[in-house]
Structure formats: C-alpha cells, structure tokens
TrEMBL record:
General factor that plays a role in the activation of archaeal genes transcribed by RNA polymerase. Binds specifically to the TATA box promoter element which lies close to the position of transcription initiation. One of its GO terms (molecular function) is DNA binding. This is TATA-box-binding protein. It comes from candidate division MSBL1 archaeon SCGC-AAA382C18. Belongs to the TBP family. The keyword Zinc does not apply. Sequence repeats lie at residues 100-176. One of its GO terms (biological process) is DNA-templated transcription initiation.
Length: 177
C-alpha cells in the first residue's frame, strides 16, 4: 500500500479552565491585539503570533483555539496564553482541559480519480459535480469526511488525531485501488 502524504492545515480545540471566570473587559485590555465588542460577539478574539493560533475567549472560562498546524503548536500557544493570563493575575487553579474537536488535513494521493466511478461503487459518498467539484466520502472508522478531487488531491475533516488522518488516508487508498 502506498503511503499517502498529508499536511495538517488546521486544528480546532476546546480549552476549559475549570472553576474559572474571565473578566473579558479586563482581559481585552491586557492581551495585545485582542478584539472585544460585546455588542457584536460575546467573547474576545485573540491571535497569538508565535506559534500561530487564534482564540475565542469566553467569560465562562472556556476558549476555542483554531489555526494551529500541529498539536505541538496548539499546545504551545495554549500554554503561552495560560501563562499570560496567570501573569495578569487571572486566578487559574489548574491547567486547562484541552480537547481536539476537529483536525483538517490535505492529502496528495499522487494519482487521478474517476469520481463518477467511485460514487457509483461506494455508499457513503455524495457527488454532484454541478454543485461542487469534489466527491464527499463519509468514513465510519475513523469518523471523518474526505473530499476527493479528480486531480488526486483530497481534504480530510472531522478527524480527532493524526492517527485518524493516517487511517482515513489508508482507508481511502484501500477502497479505491
């Protein structure tokens, strides 16, 4: 079986600080470049530069972290932000609980696909070229959605780990050979 190359494009994580509430007004003044307009959105939008990640921070002590291209970068960005919060005297009792919600990766299968043929032969697929040029392939195990294109490129969404991304690539390769 051919090893399919993939590249993580985005990781979405939920971050929860147990028993912590954020004073968003105060935080917005502390975090450089933070945007907070409660009339428009009930949270702070904040972007960390090194490593690159964006955060939506809510008063409930919860955050969403998006935009990191590796788990290491995501964890480092969360760690740095947690450190900034602690330095600014936000009372944080314990390290945040971090959960991966979604990983998006791009694939290159290094071959072209006959999407019509794949759509006819497999259930769990959707292909409407008049609406969207890719074939949507829903996998049960791992639970992920793969978009396949005639060019041999693909996108995996919904995975929760790199292991799932690799399994999805292997599963697609297995199924269409």
């Amino acid at each position: 079986m051919v090893d399919v190359k993939y590249e993580i494009q985005n990781i979405v994580l939920s971050v929860t600080y147990e028993d912590t509430e954020f004073d968003l007004e105060k935080l917005a003044g502390i975090l450089e470049g933070a945007r907070y307009d409660p009339e428009v959105f009930p949270g702070i939008a904040y972007k960390s530069i090194e490593p690159t990640a964006s955060f939506l921070i809510f008063a409930s002590g919860k955050m969403n972290c998006v935009g990191a291209k590796s788990m290491e970068d995501a964890e480092n960005a969360i760690e740095k932000l947690t450190e900034k919060l602690r330095e600014s005297e936000v009372e944080i009792k314990s390290d945040p609980e971090v959960e991966v919600q979604n990983m998006v990766a791009s694939f290159d299968f290094e071959r072209e696909f006959d999407l019509e043929l794949i759509a006819r032969n497999f259930r769990n697929t959707e292909y409407e070229p008049e609406v969207f040029p890719g074939l949507v392939f829903r996998l049960e195990e791992p639970k992920a959605v793969i978009l396949l294109f005639v060019s041999g490129k693909g996108v995996c969404a919904g995975a929760k780990s790199e292991e799932d991304i690799q399994k999805a690539a292997d599963r697609i390769t297995e199924v269409i050979e």
